[in-house]
Amino acid sequence: MTNTLKVSVFILIIVAAIAGFASMIPQLESPAPETLEISGELSGSELANLGQTVFESPEAGCLACHALGREGLRGPDLANIGATAAERVPGQSAEAYIHESLVDPCAYLVEGYDCLMPQTLEQTLGPDKITALVAYLQSLGGEVTVSLAAQENPAEGQPAPSGTQGTTAEEIFASAGCVACHTVESLGVQGVVGPDLSTIGSHLSADEIRQSILDPDAVVAAECPVKDASGNLTPGPCTPGIMPKDYGQKLSAAQLETLVTFLSELK
Q1: What's 58's DSSP letter?
Q2: Does the fold of domain 169-264 match that of domain 44-150?
Q3: What's domain 44-150's architecture?
Q4: What are the domain boundaries of the chain?
Q5: What SS3 class is residue 247?
Q6: What angle, 0 to 180 degrees and rounded to 10, lies between the N-to-C axes of helices 127-139 and 44-55?
Q7: Which residue in 41, 116, 148, 264 could disulfide with 201, CB within 3.0 to 4.6 Å?
Q8: How confident is the model over 3-21, as pLDDT tens digits?
Q9: What are the Cα distances from residue 147, in Å, to 5, 36, 150, 177, 233?
């Protein structure tokens, strides 16, 4: 009895000491993410600097496919796009070409590349960030001519474009850009980047599918389409970091669950 009491007192002393030590450690708080403010009173260089922030952000996802000074994982090198854009389409300025390539990425394709870029970037970012992106890309080898004043901003009081449109699984899947990467036989879409989802419900539970959407690098699929030396698609290992990690912000709770339910039933 005495030994038990001594042991209990000793344990209480140790616990108290650990708690006291822990309370002395400074607690770190994660700062709230900064909101990117873009106003109409910006010089070309200031707008381009903001555009670089957009370009490097997970929200835009540009770095998942593109690179500067070398070929990107899935997209062309953008190091000198400000100069080459003016030569791509006769009679079209670099500003117009870059803008159209962002809002309608399948309009012009660089030889040797497929149309993989989501066609919802303008809805995801909004017109001001698209304008900043145009300025940044123009600055890469060219002259910044775009300005916020030249763009038509949303009317005051109107909600900004949401990240993803649609209520049905098919609409959400297309609006979120999933069709650019994934194959789903029941939808008649053929992706060329991510794993085939045609029978994903046979391999993953609803919870695992939800995790793969919200945290795509938590578990990376084993097999994805990979281009060989001849440009043909062959099965190969999937590359982490390709799928955007911000679908938790782009999708509403209802849209997320609609997608999860749809994919879990693909068996």
Answers
A1: T
A2: yes
A3: Orthogonal Bundle (1.10)
A4: 44-150, 169-264
A5: helix
A6: 100
A7: 264
A8: 555 545 555 555 455 545 4
A9: 77, 17, 5, 28, 41
What is the rounded CA–CA span in Å between residue 144 and residue 137? 8
CA pair distance 48, 56, nearest whole angstrom: 12
Alpha-carbon distance 245 to 64, whole Å?
11
Other Cβ atoms less than 10 A from the Cβ of 235: the count is 11
Q: Tokens 């822990």 sit at which residue?
A: 22
Q: Is the pTM of this model over 0.70?
A: no
Q: Could you tell me the two tokens for 65?
A: 């496919």
Find the largest Cα–Cα distance for the chain.
95
What's the count of helices (H) and strands (E) in the chain, helices before strands? 10, 2
How far is the CA of 177 from the CAs of 53, 155, 166, 210, in angstroms?
22, 26, 12, 17
Residue 180: both structure tokens together: 């650019």
CATH code of the region 169-264: 1.10.760
Q: What residues contact 85, with CB distance under 8 A and at least 6 apart? A: 94, 97, 98, 101, 137, 138, 142
Q: What tens digit of pLDDT does each residue of 229-240 get?
A: 676 778 888 878
How many CB atoms sit inside 10 A of residue 156's CB? 5
- Measured CA to CA, the distance from residue 132 to residue 44 in angstroms comes to 9
Report the pLDDT value the prediction gives residue 157, as an integer from 0 to 100: 37
Banded model confidence at residue 27, pLDDT cuts 50, 70, 90: very low
Sign of the C-alpha dihedral computed for residues 82, 87, 91 and 96 taken in this order: negative
- AA identity, residue 66: H
